[in-house]
Amino acid sequence: MTTQPDRVLIFDTTLRDGEQSPGATMNVEEKLAVARQLARLGVDIIEAGFPYASPGDFEAVQRIAQEVGVAEGPTICGLARATKQDIEAAARAVEPAAKGRIHTFIATSDIHMKYKLKKSREQVLAITDEMVRFAKGFTDDVEFSPEDAGRSEPEFLYQVLEVAIAAGATTINIPDTVGYLTPSEFGGLIKGIADNVPNVDQAVISVHGHNDLGLAVANFLEAVKNGARQLECTINGIGERAGNAALEELVMAMHVRRQYYNPFFGRPADSEVPLTHINTTEIYKTSRLISSVTGMLVQPNKAIVGANAFAHESGIHQDGVLKNRLTYEIMDAQTIGLNDNLIVLGKLSGRNAFRSRLQELGYELSDQDLNKAFLRFKDLADKKKEISDRDLEAIVNDETQQVAEHFRLELVQVSCGSNARPTATVTIRTPNGEELMDAAIGTGPVDAIYKAINRVVDIPNALIEYSVQSVTAGIDAIGEVTIRLRHDQRIYSGHAANTDIVVASAHAYMQALNRLYGSTQVAGSSLSPQRMAVPAGTGV
């Protein structure tokens, strides 16, 4: 008999469903960094990937299981279709974890069964029973999902879930795969399951949903009121199409409104016992990390973690906040780990003081990464009088989330002005060690840089997004540049931070190109650098 939790379990699928966002692909080291941060955040389960999908996915899940799935850490989960080869791959990938889970699924809506699976209801029931039992042979922790449950016929859905639980599933996940349901419908769906699946008390009810109509968070909160005790969500709400339910919004809704939600857990309304195990002070840093790694910027008006979430411009609001913050703020910014502290460090400060401040901020860096970040800090200290914690976060994220440098930018120089034609010169070291120099004219300095880089690297691509945002206020602020490229229907992101946004733009572009080039090498493509560029030092 499964013990029902007295709180909400947070199942984070940023590394699986979140990574399916166009351009959000992460390498193994980036996934490890995210998994470590999710562990610090306090999520209960990390869905680390889809092991059968590719050797890279398998390696990432296995390494996360080894390095993050320790006894006191989160459960590490691998996704698998309801097939033996998928389930075996997931089982091998999560095996090193102290707590491993296999999450298997099959579609149950009539439209999916008819057009995608081409199987009858009887066949789907038989597959569910066989594959859940097969997964149970590898681990006691098996989760089952009826894909497109939101559009499945209720009576058949109840039947499938009963079979899955009888076969050994300890979690049954109800996905609104296409983001179609409204809150009242989703709440009714969960209540119907709780009332009509006879063995439902032997499994935890989980929910998964997409945000196509902007209702994912509201749907989940309604599901909690009707008995759901696991929420499958992502940081910043990233994911396919319009994304998933946002972890930070769900957690803070239940934190701020716990008096409202407590009675649904059989607690007194005034109970201060948290409804999740999330360390809320890690929310902001986790959001920043995901934004940096994926290149997906957080919109300024995004709830909880947006730049404007705690900003007040209206005079009436400012007056009220100055008198009492509770007049217009329902939560303290420090609750999510957001503060405006300035570090008492300067260009004469040593490594130990720098390391100590990073540790206070929750960063544990290797000696190599610390050295790189410290050099960037020293450089920044020569340019800025005051260095904020957000500056440090930008430095650390920029230095520790680098991709393999197949092409290395050795020099970038621009000339522009109101009566000049923007011109850029770049020197790039190619994968074979050769230094090539070239120059180009553009509509502006960044356009000129990108044209010059393209002349050297010569990998066809289309720039589909370019954005700049300031880390802090002031003319000397660090600028963060995020770009996205398209090549052969795939999207590659790049991110860089520098007080010089022209330099940051060049490095962000190189990072995206290196991701692109690296993926083509894995795929066996013959892309090679341009040979018409001029060797460095010979002039243009």
TrEMBL record:
Keyword field: Acyltransferase, Amino-acid biosynthesis, Branched-chain amino acid biosynthesis, Cytoplasm, Leucine biosynthesis, Manganese, Metal-binding, Transferase
Regulatory domain: annotated span: 408-540
Described purpose of this protein according to its UniProt entry: This protein is a Fe-Mo-cofactor biosynthetic component.
Residues annotated for Mn(2+) binding in this entry: D17, H208, H210, N244
Keyword Cell membrane assigned: no
Cofactor: Mn(2+)
Reactions catalysed, as given in the entry: acetyl-CoA + 2-oxoglutarate + H2O = (2R)-homocitrate + CoA + H(+); 3-methyl-2-oxobutanoate + acetyl-CoA + H2O = (2S)-2-isopropylmalate + CoA + H(+)
Family matches, as CDD domains: DRE_TIM_IPMS
Listed GO biological process terms: L-leucine biosynthetic process
Protein name per UniProt: 2-isopropylmalate synthase
Stretches assigned to the Pyruvate carboxyltransferase domain: 8-279
Pfam families: HCS_D2, HMGL-like, LeuA_dimer
Assembly and interaction partners: Homodimer.
Originating species: Leptothoe spongobia TAU-MAC 1115
Catalytic EC class: transferase
GO MF annotations, alphabetized: 2-isopropylmalate synthase activity; acetyl-CoA C-acetyltransferase activity; homocitrate synthase activity; manganese ion binding
Pathway(s) where this gene product acts: Amino-acid biosynthesis; L-leucine biosynthesis; L-leucine from 3-methyl-2-oxobutanoate: step 1/4
UniProt keyword annotation of Transmembrane helix present: no
Alphabetized Gene3D superfamilies for the sequence: 1.10.238.260, 3.30.160.270, Aldolase class I
HAMAP family: LeuA_type1
Entry GO CC: cytoplasm
InterPro entries, alphabetized: 2-IPM_HCS-like, 2-isopropylmalate_synth_dimer, AIPM/Hcit_synth_CS, Aldolase_TIM, LeuA/HCS_post-cat, LeuA_allosteric_dom_sf, LeuA_bact_synth, PYR_CT
